[in-house]
Amino acid sequence: MQTNLYDKDYCLWLEETVQLLRKRKFTDLDVSNLIEEIEDMGRSEKKAVKSNLKILLCHLLKYKYQPEKRSKIWLSTIFEHRDRLEDDFAESPSLKRYFEEVFQPCYHKARKQAEIETGLPLETFPLNCPFTSEQVLDMDYLPE
């Protein structure tokens, strides 16, 4: 396989790479780009966990600290991002460890986002997350 096919036609490169793997023609593989793609897949999965967690935390903060503005849209967003994380963990259980690792840094970003979205002072939101990681993932939990 031509190495430059990766740069010229990514989808065709993927199709040919799959065929070479199925045929066990390992010597014909574009190994350097294949390694890069596999690494990118892992990074992409982790980025999705962080993104879903930040959105979820932000909406939980808004729900808790702006009760007068609670809406079905907020509830829907909370459910949607819990569901996405649940699906991610079912597919790749090791992502749950990553979720725990990034929980506090994601909370700090969600706290800032909640300040921007609500107009409330940053001090409104505790420095440490008021929810446990279990509560954040619990489909039935809502902060009151």
Element order, helices and strands?
HHHHHH
The main β sheet shows up as: none
Strand content range? under 5%
| Count of helical regions | 6
**Count of distinct structural domains:** 1
Helix content: over 70%
- Please tally the β strands and state the result: 0
Distance between the termini: 59 Å
Looking at how many chains there are and whether they match, the oligomeric state comes to single chain
| Global geometry | elongated
What is the radius of gyration computed over CA atoms, rounded to a whole number of angstroms? 20 Å
Mean pLDDT across the residues is 94
Specify the structural class: mainly alpha
**Poorly predicted ranges (pLDDT <50, ≥5 residues)?**
none
Task: Offer a few descriptive terms.
about 140 residues, mainly alpha, about 70% helix
List the helices and strands and how they pair.
Elements: H1 5-8, H2 10-22, H3 31-65, H4 72-91, H5 95-118, H6 133-137
Helix pairs in contact: 3-4, 3-5
Describe the structure.
With 144 residues, this protein is mainly alpha-helical. The protein has one domain. 70% of the residues lie in helices and 0% in strands. The chain is built from 6 helices and no strands. It is elongated, with a radius of gyration of 20 Å. It starts with a helix and ends in a 7-residue tail after the last helix.
How would you concisely characterize the structure shown here?
The chain has 144 residues and is mainly α. It has helices at residues 5-8, 10-22, 31-65, 72-91, 95-118, 133-137.
